[in-house]
Amino acid sequence: QVQLVESGGGLAQAGGSLKLSCAVSGRTFRNDAMGWFRQPPGKEREFVAYISSNGGTIGYAESVNGRFTISRDNAKNKAYLQMNSLKPEDTAVYFCSADRTGWGTPRSSNYDTWGQGTQVTVSS
Questions:
Q1: What gap in Å lies between CA 82 and CA 73, rounded to an integer?
Q2: Confidence band (pLDDT; 50, 70, 90) for 2?
């Protein structure tokens, strides 16, 4: 059974940091590109970051560029999202997702499997 399980969410103060993890099982992780998306309260889901299967290509949303860092450990079947300099507008449910093409993209429709999400709340 394919599973993506996010962890590491919680409450942080503005200016603080959190690191999200995404544990992947049931598929060949090293072949997958991974993406992080988020859904702020009352809004549509939006792209945050992606990383290609070999880690050679990375992309960020403009709103997080320079503050967030996506990474992966193919030996551990995990993807990560390091979030620094958090802002209240970063408050959202964060989802990780897998793209079997391996390339990665900001388009959510390219991702075939999703986790259930982890809540991140940033207080001012």
A1: 13
A2: confident
